[in-house]
Amino acid sequence: MKIKFGSVEEKIITRKEFSLLKAKNILEKETISVLGYGVQGPGQALNLRDNGFKVIVGQRKNSLSWNKALQDGWIEEINLFSLEEASKKGTILMYLLSDAGQISFWPILKKYINKGKSLYFSHGFGLTFKDKTKIYPPKDIDIFLVAPKGSGTSLRRLFKKGRGINSSYAIYQDYSGKSLDKALSIGIGIGSGYLFETNFEKEVYSDLVGERGSLMGAIQGIFSAQYQVLRENGHSPSESFNETVEELTQSLMPLISENGMDYMYENCSTTAQRGALDWWKKFRDATLPIFKQLYHEVVSGNEANRIIEENSVTNYRSKLKKELISIQKSELWKVGKTIRSLRPEENN
Fold first, then answer.
1. Facing residues of 197 across strands?
2. From the CB of residue 213, how many other CB atoms can be counted at a distance below 10 Å?
3. H/E stretch holding 9
4. Which CA distances in Å does 199 have to 70, 123, 175, 196, 243?
5. One of 49, 54, 117, 123 is an active-site residue; which one?
6. In whole angstroms, what separates CA 27 from the centre of its chain?
7. Which residues are CB-neighbours of 250 under 8 A, at least 6 positions away?
8. Residue 272 β-bridge partners
9. Cβ-Cβ contacts under 8 Å for 278 (sequence gap 6 or more)
10. Nearest by Cα to 178 from 286, 288, 66, 92
């Protein structure tokens, strides 16, 4: 269906017009090979399996992710194989390794991409920045993506509750003339709430900006700054954390999710309403130059260069662990761990 957002018309696909039964019929002769069992792999693979699609998993043997796949019920040499064997067996290859992993495995994967196969992504990085990743697919295959707007963990959790995360979809190469049907079928199969159209470039640009911006980077920065100011002015750790994080995540975000920002304002005190309405534009004006700089760095390819360089070093995982531990051990998030343990529902 087409929906108007003001003057902009968008193409939206819902489960009502593209049913799960239709998706299964379209892919009934396909073997979906999920390559990678890290962030997106588990959620997408398990949801497809539970929805009745023919799915196999490819992962490096004896890795942590291989052992996780075994724990999730995948059986070695039945529906769990090495990356090479799964690449050979699959007709739709879901390339869900990390961006760095995709770069390193590509010289091997391309040997298994025969004419008529399909190559699937959940991120536009590899092909948008192909001059940097060196991922150059052949011309005689279908290439498309479905990108859930959330983590693989959330995708799985919501699926088990009968809900779903919205996803974007895009067609990069339509050799068979059936790429759109395949993309939408997998989108419905993994449990998307609805699907909206994009392209590979727009997907990766918006994704990189969002991750570094309001979804992860900016929100951590704002949390850290507000907590620091409150603590420096004599507020207790508990008071500072509750006013910075807990009230937002446990009380206000659900209201925004239900009916929008104005609804959240309506359900707060008049004092909170007035203050929020008076101050929000100051924060917009302060951060707008940063977001413009961020978007430029993404589109120019500078951010891609940095990501590839950083993520490709051999000790990346150990460096990452140190960075995450430093956040975990900061007073802000040590207080958060204690406060989460005091939530009534987590004590029952």
1. 169
2. 18
3. strand 8-14
4. 35, 10, 17, 10, 39
5. 123
6. 24
7. 343
8. none
9. none
10. 92
Residue (of 196, 212, 176) closest to 299 by Cα position = 212
* pLDDT tens figures, 2-40: 888 888 888 899 999 999 999 999 999 999 999 999 989
Which of the four CATH numbers 1.10.10.10, 3.40.50.300, 3.30.70.1560, 3.40.50.720 does domain 2-198 have? 3.40.50.720
Sign of CA dihedral 132, 138, 139, 141: negative
Cβ pair 201, 125 in contact under 8 A: no
Residue 323 in tokens? 């960075």
Residues linked to residue 94 through DSSP beta bridges, in sequence order:
34, 120
Q: Is 296 a catalytic residue?
A: no
The pair of structure tokens assigned to 164 is 């779903």
Q: What is the DSSP letter of 56?
A: E
For residues 145 and 186, the answer to whether their CB atoms sit within 8 Å is: no
**CA gyration radius, the chain:** 22
The domains of the chain are located at 2-198, 211-347
Token pair, residue 138, equals 């052949």
| Position 117, amino acid | K
Q: Taking the model in full, what pTM does it have?
A: 0.90
Residue pointed to by tokens 């724990």: 71
- Find the length of the chain: 348
Top-level class of domain 211-347: mainly alpha
For residue 348, the model assigns a pLDDT of 45
Nearest residue to 79 via CA among 118, 50, 110:
50
What's the CA gap between 246 and 258, in Å, rounded? 18
Burial class (CB in 10 A: 0-12, 13-18, 19+), 182: buried
Closest CA relative to residue 169, chosen from 12, 314, 283? 12
Question: What's the one-letter identity of residue 14?
Answer: T
pLDDT tens digits, 111-153:
999 999 999 999 999 999 999 999 999 999 999 999 999 889 9
